Amino acid sequence: MRVRSIAKYTAFLSLALVIVFAAMSLIDATPALAHCDGLDGPVVSAARIALQTGDLNRVLIWVRPEDVGEIRRAFNEALATRKLGPQPQEMADRYFFETLVRIHRVYGAPSPAPD
């Protein structure tokens, strides 16, 4: 009789541990974000300077050569839209940042070597 209750207890404990670990993995399932994804990261910092100076070359180090065309198009659209006022400028900047970071992350362009 005692052997049965120990077996039941062990089975119950095993099931409880599986449920707890499954729940913990769901709770902690947050996407991993690289520093470059943030608005304070180096990709967006370079993009801010590029938009202010009109120099696209500042951001091209963050993307593959085959993606330059798409980045150039987004950059030119952002520059043209920025002239329409403060709110369009903010939206254009965000569009350019998001395009640049998305392409950088999807294709895994290397980060530039530190100075």
Task: Provide a concise account of the structure shown.
The chain is mostly helical and 115 residues long. It has helices spanning 2-27, 42-53, 57-60, 68-82, 86-107. It folds into two domains: 1-30; 35-107.
Name the features.
115 residues, mainly alpha, 2 domains, elongated
How does this structure look, described?
The protein has 115 residues and is mainly alpha-helical. It folds into 2 domains: 1-30; 35-107. The chain has 5 helices and no strands. The chain has helices at 2-27, 42-53, 57-60, 68-82, 86-107. Helix 2 (42-53) crosses helix 5 (86-107) and helix 4 packs antiparallel against helix 5. It starts with a helix and ends in an 8-residue tail after the last helix.
Distance between the termini: 73 Å
Q: Helical residue percent?
A: 55-70%
In terms of structural class, how would the helical and strand content be classed?
Answer: mainly alpha
Bulk shape: elongated
Number of helices, counting only DSSP H or I runs of 4 residues or more? 5
Whole-number mean pLDDT: 80
Biggest β-sheet strands, sense, barrel: none
- Cα radius of gyration in angstroms: 24 Å
Overall strand count: 0
Fraction in beta strands: under 5%
| Sequence of secondary-structure elements | HHHHH
For the record, the count of structural domains works out to: 2
- Unreliable spans: none
